[in-house]
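Protein data sheet
==================
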Amino acid sequence: MKTILTQMAATALLFAGLTFAQAPSARVRVVHASPDAPAVDIYVDGAVALDNIAYRGATDYVELPAGQRIFQVFAAGTSTKVAELNATLTPGSTMTVIAAGFAAKSPGLRLLVLSDNIPNDMTNAYVRVVHGAPSAPGVDVYLGSPYQTLAKREPGLTGVPFAAASGYLSLRPNTGYMARVTPAGTKTIAIESGRLSFPAGSAWTVIALDTTGGGTPFGFLALQDR
């Protein structure tokens, strides 16, 4: 799986500058999925928390105080704000925040907040799918044995619109799978993952993405959640 992971550690945990009082915490991860946006800095309650995250970059999970937080996204090293979100972090929760959409055109950049509520079961593997490709229409998602023809198969997810995410799907561990994405209602493959195998107990978020700058060829980013 290492060959398909582009998860990047944050340059540093820059929370020394934050002045939060001691409080119950939540775990938060940030993903840069805006194809035409430059590298970005993430501010939490007005202070830099994570810096210089490039397109397709993802931080590790970091601890933030629970409660009402203001997330802001700025072009790296500038005062140009491209997105803002007020979010409530529940004590003990784990969340993924995805900057998705275009910075300069429609559909515009927005912050998607996903609760990483992974089932406690450690015998199966789990995969969650996110439509993060702003140039793509609604899509169908097929997940099955590698290289099977789609002609007589039904998609596992249908008509998934941009910025939508599935729940965690249970899969047999250590079994060969292939994910394929088609425009909704067609069998035309827009994204193909290659052979995948998921260890027992593992959980993943797979995000469909535009190429850098926007448009085709589409690809995906796979992040290990557990």
In short: Residues 1-116 form a domain with the Immunoglobulin-like fold (CATH 2.60.40.1120). The two ends are 13 Å apart (CA to CA).
